[in-house]
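Weekly modeling sync, notes
Attendees: S.R. (lead), two postdocs, one rotation student

Agenda item 3: backlog of single-chain predictions. S.R. asked that every request posted to the team notebook include the full sequence so nobody has to chase files. The rotation student volunteered to paste the first one in as an example of the format we agreed on. Action items at the bottom.

Example entry:
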Amino acid sequence: MAGGSASVLRPGDWVTYADGDHQVVALAGTSVRLRSQDGAESVVLASYLMASPGFAVAGTEPPAAVEPFGLLESLPKSVLAAAREWERHVVEVETGLPPTTDPGSGPRQEYDPARRTLAERDAAKAHELGVSARTVQSRRARYARQGLWGLVDQRTIREWETTGRADARLIDAICQVMDSETTTSTGTRSRLIRRVIKMVEDAHGPGTVPLPSRSTFYRLVDALSTGRHTFGSAVTRRQMANRPEGPFTPTFADRPGEQVQIDSTPLDVMVVLDSGLTARADLTIAVDVATRTICAAVLRPMGTKAVDASLLLARMLVPEPMRPGWSTSLRMTASRIPHLRLLDVDARMEQAAAKPVIVPDTVVIDGGKVFISETFIRACNRLGVSVQRARPRTPTDKAIVEATFSAINTLFCQHVAAYTGPNVSRRGERVEAHAAWTIPELQDLLDEWLLVGWQMRPHDSLRDPYRPKMAMSPNDKYTSLVAASGYLPLVLRGEDYLELLPVAWRAVNDYGVRINHRTYDCADLGPWRRQQSGIAAKRGLWEVYYDPYDLSRVFVRTQHGWITVPWIQLPLINAPFADFTWQHARRLAAEAGLDDTNEDAVARVLDKLLSRAEHGPDKRTVRVLDRTRAAVAIPAPAAEPESDTPSPIQLPAPVAPFGVFDAHAEAERWL
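Predicted structure, as returned to the notebook:
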């Protein structure tokens, strides 16, 4: 074995430290007192001194390196045996005895250190092995530096470059062409080779850069395309290109609501629209990073709007109400969520489902126009929620919500009728023929599955640091973090929900309030007709809030509270309609030669439009009808218990529920 004394630092030694020579004056525990050549003294920690760049002890050789035992075990047995045979010869030259000599045995005469010099022993060993003395000396030097690893035949472990002897200019051209293939459709190797040759000839001239044979060219391309999916899936190739170059740092949050990631994507399920056609729906979700709770999930027809995102934010902040037919085991009172402390704050928790209410501190969004719209940003500002935008084309900035979409497809969508698969290559035959669920029905299924299949299911990323083998469910993680961080959500009240709706500034006239050629009026507006609101910045106009997915009523803020004002044409329609439905009805009225600013004429067209729900005149009308019916798929949030304080709002005439938040109606239903 290689021998040598361990390096020892003693007083009086000279060391190289901080680009200068210093003498060790004294050693005290882990401290070293040094004196520089100009007489300046300093005290440093021994660990810092020895770890500093350029540290060395004068007059001593660097210590031998520790042998890489793991690499030695990975060598072929024949290679390792040859190295051990050389070790036996090297040790015999240096000590006179091989390492496996029996006790009491003496050295051979030609290797006796007492009779032969080291040079003579090198020459004797070279003659014995049939090699040069220079070879023996180099093997001894490598053995002194690296031990047994220095005697291994390096040809057996050398990692040859994948490019071999190919010209560097050709390699650069291949890499450039492969980089350009990232966003293009997948081609063949022959197409890439043709583009490489053309690029090389255009840059350096024909015949200047030597080109390999065709078979060698193919092998070179295969070697350089490893891991890039240049000739595989275009989706995978783009995803690989979008990965950050640095190490991936997972997003971490230590309390509920610290960070909530929001995104939208088409659901991999074909749904049946009211018209009888089949299509995919958009799924918008909000995921809490700390607990992996899906705070809210909304299905809409393709084309999510900005108001969908703001209403999603509002639904995150109210308890999830129990639905008819749901098992009592899904109630919050039957779960381990600390509902008692929440019940003292909000009585709606008594009838809530087992999903926590999480108030976000920060929401992470992408650059989609839905999330960077004024409506969504204003809603976040109203709630004091900070908005953090992900970097363009960097899905890893919101990797958790992206992974959640994949989990929903795996755990839920693939078990639903008319599952399309993630792409057309995995899609079955005539999938649309198996579509069975409408958007409202699928929304109910999804809401119930979120309670059972997600909130109560152990999540691999939710583990207790003291019990790493046990995975926790989102509800269990929420319970533990609530106890650790003292988290108490202040859920959204009825008036706060109205604050998140879009606002229009209008005057209260004798005929009521008019918005986009629709008139709203009721008796409660009497004291405020022809009056100024007192808001000089808006020229005395009044705040009128409306739900774009239910235009049957508006909400007017007065000095004494809110007034719910119904649409005067509501008895004629008696069906839910949204803003895009009204706009389409105006277009149909104009095409029919009617005055699209006449409220009565547009109302009659709207009534006919909604009556022809199953036999729409064209696909554009069908799409509008589908979005109209899906707008009421999500139930309104549960209301607060009825207060003893009289409310200035009087109940309007009974109408069909449109999914808008009505505090009194909801309170009566709950109580």
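Discussion: group reviewed the output briefly. The chain has four domains: 69-156, 168-242, 260-492, 517-522+544-670.
Action items: rotation student to repeat for the remaining queue; S.R. to check formatting next week.
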